[in-house]
Amino acid sequence: MRRILEIDGEEIPVWLAATGRGHVLHMKGREIPCALEAAAGKGAWTLLLDGARIPMRIAVGEGATFIHVNGRAHAIGRTDPAERLGNTAGASQDRMIAPMPGVVVSVLAAAGDAVTEGQALLVIESMKLETTITAPRDGIVAEVPFATGASFGGKEVLLRLEPQEETV
């Protein structure tokens, strides 16, 4: 299965292949033996990657998988390369879309606020996994439709940015 993963803003083409002894992840020119074992607790797993055992929690949404490992949460977007055919590359970074249903834990920016790339804007929780939504670029917050404690559905707009006007 070929996919393009987006991990911390970097797009990485990957290919997962089954072998007689498990799976091999083809990534960045490497072939990495891997397996995933269920662990105790909802969403708890152990990743066996190139001989290492890595405990993690995983929540899967429609457009992304959320992985909590080593005290950090990562949203991993996944795209089938065939879906990109005919699409314009570099889709808009004006809307932050909920990858799965959840609840807003905290709102860290308000409409009218100037924000910088990487700045924390919202903290959401989906399937007991907290994820911080950060600004994909500099801009002005145009809309924050959900307040702290509000529920949202998958694919809903969590926050919208406008371009920051340049001063001359």
Describe the structure.
With 168 residues, the chain is an all-beta fold. It has 2 domains: 2-82, Glycoprotein, Type 4 Pilin (2-Layer Sandwich), CATH 3.30.700; 95-162, OB fold (Dihydrolipoamide Acetyltransferase, E2P) (Beta Barrel). Helix content is 0%, strand content 58%. It contains no helices and 16 strands. The protein has strands at residues 2-7, 10-19, 22-27, 30-38, 44-49, 52-60, 64-69, 72-79, 95-97, 102-107, 114-115, 120-126, 129-134, 139-143, 151-152, 157-162. The termini are far apart. Mean pLDDT is 82; it is low at 85-91.
Helical segment count: 0
H/E element sequence: EEEEEEEEEEEEEEEE
The side-by-side strand order for the widest beta sheet comes to: 1-2-3-4-5-6-7-8
Biggest beta-sheet profile: 8 strands, antiparallel, barrel
In brief:
With 168 residues, this protein is mainly beta. The protein has strands at residues 2-7, 10-19, 22-27, 30-38, 44-49, 52-60, 64-69, 72-79, 95-97, 102-107, 114-115, 120-126, 129-134, 139-143, 151-152, 157-162.
Reconstruct the topology from this structure:
Elements: E1 2-7, E2 10-19, E3 22-27, E4 30-38, E5 44-49, E6 52-60, E7 64-69, E8 72-79, E9 95-97, E10 102-107, E11 114-115, E12 120-126, E13 129-134, E14 139-143, E15 151-152, E16 157-162
Antiparallel strand pairs: 1-2, 1-8, 2-3, 3-4, 4-5, 5-6, 6-7, 7-8, 9-16, 10-12, 10-15, 11-14, 12-13, 14-16
